[in-house]
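for the recovery benchmark. tokens below, seq after
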């Protein structure tokens, strides 16, 4: 119990605390997160506005600033008429979501000169642009302004869900620290761009929280929506399987048997199946609509042709192919060392206090990244769901390390917004 702060210990050890008092405590915790997140949005908005002002004041071109994604432009580049805070927040992947917002998905995807599937909107999942489209029909606002505000609101929901996910296991101070890293971190500005990240984080952290609280049927709701928001939800299915196996072993073979009732077993099996099926459904949808088997995989592989050429997908090979191509044997060793280092961090004894559901989900998601993702600059964005790892007591319970990590992360956002927003895509 030393891992928890005094407020959390009191709430756990005194079940007689009145329900109104408990609701009041939860409300105060929520407002703490709201205030923190609001400050983070002021910080990120200021960085975006300053960067835009510098770009316009110097007459620099705005990267990836077309009326349509580059792969659907027939003749030359067609630039949008105006540059403002909202359209500047809609660069890169935002253009692809804007295309889906306006045109939907192509029934006949484009092909390149070799006849292979070329980059196309099927790489981007539908929930985010369709929700923004629905809100646009109600409010009359366009994609970029409405998408920016919607992402910002989803980011707040994600921060609240993350706070309670960590709070359940590590108490207020650690939860506040991890949530602050999430909001102020190097890629915190993405929480208000027209990317699907904020919505995905809200859904994933909510599903993880329900999973942690053993609400297996309920967790399938945000998990299933997340499966059509951004790739990666399938990690939840693996996490459910891991926790199920651990519970089953403890119920049958552990020295101190732990009850594992059939009602819970059935709920976990159903949750695992639902999250797996929904996590694998979007490729099937794409193939049915276009009549092209393997469309989604071909589309994803088309985005890395310029990096590692035309190569079939081999699980767990992408990091070694990428680093080996550009840095030789040193890169391969680096990739192996990075994987080994993360595994060592994940299996440290002190992290076990975060609980099997959280660690199983984070570990499964990391394994998913290792299996399928080419480690380009976008890899850092894809790593954001690993933020619960910073609840590590070695970091979160040290005032010195909390300050170093937080201020270091916040300062890096200044660098990253230039490198991974203006100069290239995150």
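predicted aa per position
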């Amino acid at each position: 119990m030393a891992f928890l702060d005094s407020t959390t210990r009191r709430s756990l050890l005194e079940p007689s605390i009145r329900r109104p008092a408990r609701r009041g405590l939860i409300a105060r915790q929520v407002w703490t997160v709201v205030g923190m997140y609001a400050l983070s949005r002021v910080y990120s908005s200021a960085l975006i506005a300053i960067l835009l002002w510098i770009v316009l004041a110097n007459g620099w071109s705005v990267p990836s600033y077309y009326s349509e994604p580059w792969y659907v432009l027939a003749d030359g580049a067609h630039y949008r008429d105006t540059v403002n805070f909202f359209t500047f927040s809609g660069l890169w992947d935002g253009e692809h979501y804007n295309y889906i917002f306006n045109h939907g998905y192509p029934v006949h995807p484009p092909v390149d000169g070799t006849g292979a599937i070329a980059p196309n909107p099927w790489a981007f999942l539908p929930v985010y642009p369709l929700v923004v489209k629905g809100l646009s029909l109600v409010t009359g606002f366009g994609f970029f302004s409405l998408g920016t505000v919607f992402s910002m609101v989803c980011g707040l929901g994600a921060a609240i869900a993350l706070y309670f996910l960590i709070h359940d296991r590590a108490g207020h101070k650690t939860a506040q620290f991890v949530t602050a890293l999430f909001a102020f971190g190097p890629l915190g500005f993405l929480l208000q761009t027209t990317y699907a990240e904020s919505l995905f984080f809200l859904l994933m952290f909510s599903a993880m929280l329900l999973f942690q609280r053993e609400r297996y049927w309920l967790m399938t709701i945000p998990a299933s929506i997340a499966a059509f928001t951004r790739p990666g939800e399938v990690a939840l299915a693996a996490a459910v399987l891991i926790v199920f196996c651990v519970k089953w072993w403890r119920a049958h073979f552990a020295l101190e048997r732990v009850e594992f009732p059939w009602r819970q077993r059935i709920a976990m099996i159903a949750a695992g199946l639902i999250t797996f099926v929904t996590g694998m459904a979007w490729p099937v949808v794409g193939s049915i609509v276009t009549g092209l088997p393997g469309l989604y995989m071909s589309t994803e592989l088309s985005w890395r042709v310029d990096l590692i050429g035309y190569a079939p997908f081999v699980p767990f090979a992408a990091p070694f192919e990428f680093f080996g191509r550009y840095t030789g044997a040193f890169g391969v060793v680096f990739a192996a060392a990075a994987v080994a280092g993360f595994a060592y961090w994940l299996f440290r004894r002190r992290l076990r206090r975060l609980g099997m559901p959280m660690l199983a989900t984070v570990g499964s998601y990391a394994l998913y990244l290792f299996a399928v993702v080419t480690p380009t600059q976008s890899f850092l964005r894809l790593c954001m769901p690993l933020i619960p790892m910073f609840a590590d007591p070695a970091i979160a319970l040290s005032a010195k390390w909390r300050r170093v990590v937080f201020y270091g992360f916040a300062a890096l956002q200044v660098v990253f917004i230039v490198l991974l927003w203006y100069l290239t895509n995150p």
